[in-house]
Amino acid sequence: MTLSVSGLTAVRSGRTIPHPTSLEIAPRARIGLVGASGSGKSTLGHALIDDLRAHGRSVAHVPQRPDEALDPLRSMAFHWTEAARALGSPPNADQRKRLFAALKIDGGDLRKRPWGWSRGMQQQFVIAMALIGIPDLIVLDEPTSALDPVVAAQTMDLLDSHLAATETVMLLITHDLGLAARRVLNLTVMDAGRVVEASPTADLLDRPQTGAAQSLSAHRSWLALLCGRSKAFRSDAAKARRWRTSGCR
Amino acid sequence: MSRGILGLLPRAAVVLTGTALATFALLWNAPGDPALAIALARYDTVASDDVVDHVQVETDLDAGFLTAFTAWSGPLLIGDFGRSSVTGRAVWPELIDAISYTVPLAFAGLAIGLATSVPLAAIATRAPGRWMDRIAVALASFGAAIPAYWLGLLLILLFALHLAWLPAMGARTAVHILLPALTPGLGVAASLTWFIRSGIREARGQPFLPAFRRRGVSNRAIGRDHVAPHAAIPVVTVLGPEMAFLLEGAVMVEVIFARPGLGSFLVAAITARDFPKVQAVVLLAALLFVVVNLLIDVVYRLTDPRIGERDA
C-alpha cells in the first residue's frame, strides 16, 4: 500500500517546515531524508508520523538517542509491555524473543532500567520495540549516532534483513550521506524547511542539482564514500588526489 | 541498595551523638540555678539553702560536666532516659504518653497536606498558566504566608466558637485532632502544592515523553506511569523537612489547643527546669528526624534507583 501525505506543515520548537510538503512513498521503499542541521528533517519526520497515524496507519519512530525513547525510572520489561499494549496486542514473549534474536539483543536483563544496559543495547532495544506492530513506516532519526561504527553497521544490517521480509517502509533521517548512501535507494534533500531535491541515491551523489545537495555531498563522510564509491569524486580531481595522498585503503 | 542505606547509619549515629552533646552542654551552661528551680517546683515554697544543696547533690548537679554527661548518656544507649529531676519518676513512660499524642497529630497534618495538595496541583497543572493554575498558586502563596499560630486562633474562632462544629481544647476524642492538625496541615499543603506543581511541570518536559506519545501510549497512561513517578522525586525529598515542620509546629499548636503531647511536655519541662525531660524531648526529636530522613532515603532510592547507583 502506497503511503501518501499532502500539505504537511509543522512548527515545532523553533524549527519549522513552513512550506506544505507532499510525499508519495511506495511499499518497501528505503528513503533517506538528508539535509544540514536545522533544515527541518526531524520536524518533517514527526509531522509525517503524526499525519499518517491520524489516518490510521501504523507508524513507528526511533529517536536519535535512547534517552529520548526510554524512561529512566521504568524497567525495560515495562517499556516493552507498554509498547505492545499501545498497539492493542497483548505482550507476546515469543515475538519478543524473535525480535531480540533478529537484532541480536542478548544478555540484557529486562528487569533492569535503561541505564543498566549499554547505550548500543538500549538503541537496539528501541529499534526492536518499534518493530512490534509490523509498522507501515518506520522513521529512524539518526538511529546510529549514539552507537560505535561497528555496532551501528551491524544494527543497520540486522534491521535491513528483518525489514526485507515485511512491507515496511523505512525513512532514514540523517546528515551522514555516507550512511544514507549505503542504506537507501532514494534520497530526499531538505533545506531551510523545504524539500529541494529527491532522486535515486546514486544520481544524487553523482549529479547533485541544488546547492544544498551539492554542499552536502561535498561535506559527506569522505572516507567511506571515496573508498566505496569513488565515482562520485571523479569530477573533482583535486579532492580525490588529496584523499589518495592521505592514504585511503 | 541495602549497602547504600547501611552507609547512612554512621551518619545517623554522628547526628544523634552531636545532638546529645550539644543539648547537654547548652542546658549545663544555662543561666540560673537549676537546683533552686527544682526545689521551688518540688516544694512550692521558698526553699532554704539546705534544701537547695540537697537537691544539687541528689540530682548530680554538683558533678563535673563529663561525669554528669556520661551518667546521663550511658543509660541512653539502652533506652533509659533517666528520671525527672523534679518528680523523681522515670521520664520514659511520660515521654511515650506525649509521643502517642504528637505523632498522630503530625501524621494527620501530613495527611491533610497531601490530601489537599495532590488534587490541587493536579488540577492546576491540567492547564498551566490558566485561571485554575493561578488560583492554586495564589492559594499556595497565601497558605505559606499565614503563620500557624494565627491560623490556629482563627480556626478556633470560626469552627469552635462561632459555628461550634468542632472542639478546640484537649484531646478526649478523635475529632479533637482535626483543628490542631489543620493548623500546620494547611501550611504543609501550601508548600507541597508548590513542589508537586513544579514537579509535574518539570516531569512533563522530560525529553522522552514525545516518543511515548508517538508510540501510541495514551495521555492517561503517560501521566500515571511516567509523569507521576518523575514528579514524585522532588516531593519525596521535601517530605523530610515537612515532617520536621510538623513536629516543630506541634509545640505551638499543642499550647494553643491545650493538647497534651511533646510540645506541652517540653514547655512544662522547660518551665520547671526539668533538664532530663528537656534533653529527652530534644534527643527524641533528633531521633525522629533521623528515622524519617532514613525512611525517605529508602523511598527515594526505590523511586529513583539511579541515586543509589551513583553513591555506590
Describe the structure.
Chain A is α/β, with parallel strands linked by helices and 249 residues long. Chain A folds into 2 domains: 3-206, P-loop containing nucleotide triphosphate hydrolases (Rossmann fold), CATH 3.40.50.300; 219-249, no CATH class. Chain A has helices at 41-54, 76-86, 93-102, 119-130, 149-164, 177-183, 201-206, 211-218, 222-228, 237-245; strands at 3-12, 15-25, 30-35, 59-62, 137-141, 169-174, 186-191, 194-200. In chain A, a hairpin with a 2-residue loop joins strand 1 and strand 2. The termini of chain A are far apart. By secondary structure, chain B is mainly alpha-helical. Chain B has 14 helices and no strands. Chain B has helices at residues 2-6, 8-28, 34-43, 49-58, 65-76, 91-124, 131-145, 148-162, 178-204, 209-214, 219-256, 262-271, 275-303, 306-311. Classes of the chains: A alpha/beta (249), B mainly alpha (312). The interface between A and B is medium-sized, with 24 and 21 residues.
Computed CA radius of gyration of chain B, to the nearest angstrom: 24 Å
Structural class, from secondary structure content of chain A?
alpha/beta
Using the 3D structure, state the CATH architecture of the domain at 91-271 in chain B: Orthogonal Bundle
Silhouette of chain B? flat
Distance between the termini of chain B: 8 Å
Helix content of chain A: 40-55%
Number of helical elements of chain B: 14
Indicate the CATH architecture of the largest domain in chain A: 3-Layer(aba) Sandwich
**Gap between N and C termini of chain A, in Å?**
43 Å
The largest sheet of chain A has its strands arranged as 4-5-6-3-7-8
The CATH superfamily of the largest domain in chain A is: P-loop containing nucleotide triphosphate hydrolases
**How can the largest sheet of chain A be summarized?**
6 strands, mixed
User: Would you give the CATH topology of the largest domain in chain A?
Assistant: Rossmann fold
**Low-confidence spans of chain B: pLDDT under 50, at least 5 residues?**
none
Q: Secondary-structure element order of chain B, as H and E? A: HHHHHHHHHHHHHH
